[in-house]
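User: Phosphomevalonate kinase, Acanthisitta chloris:
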Amino acid sequence: PLTPFSPQEHGLDFQRLLDASAYKEQFRQDMIRWGEEKRRADPGYFCRAAVQGVAQPVWVVSDTRRLSDVEWFRDVYGDSVQTVRVVATEETRKRRNWVFVAGVDDAESECGLDQGVTFDWVITNDGDELALSEQLDMLLQSLQRSL
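Assistant: Predicted structure for Phosphomevalonate kinase:
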C-alpha cells in the first residue's frame, strides 16, 4: 500500500500546511526532500496514490510538478490525458504576495515542467476575470465534446 506524507508522523499541523503561511514555508524544504526521496525510489509513487481506488469518468489532477508525472499519466491513460498549464506574470505573482526563495522556487518541484512538456492548454491568470472565464469556457467545452 502507498503511504503518503503524514504530517502527524512528522509532528506538523496539517491544516496550516495547506495555506500559504510562514508555517508552511518552515517545512517546505523538508516536504520537498521527502517527496524527492520517494520519487527517486519510485517515479510513479504519487501518481498511483492520486488514482488509487478511483473510477471517475473525468479527473482533474492539479499541481502535477514533474515531467515524470506527466509521462506516467500519458503512459497509463494515453490520448485521453489533457495537460493544462496556468501561467501568470512575475508581476502578478508578486502582487499576490509571492516572493522568490532560492533553493525552493528554482527546484524541480516548482519548475520541473517549465521545459519538456507541450501543454494542450495554457491558461493565463493575470487578474482579468473575463479573459480567464473565456479561456476556461473554451477548455470546458472542449472537454465536454471529448466525453
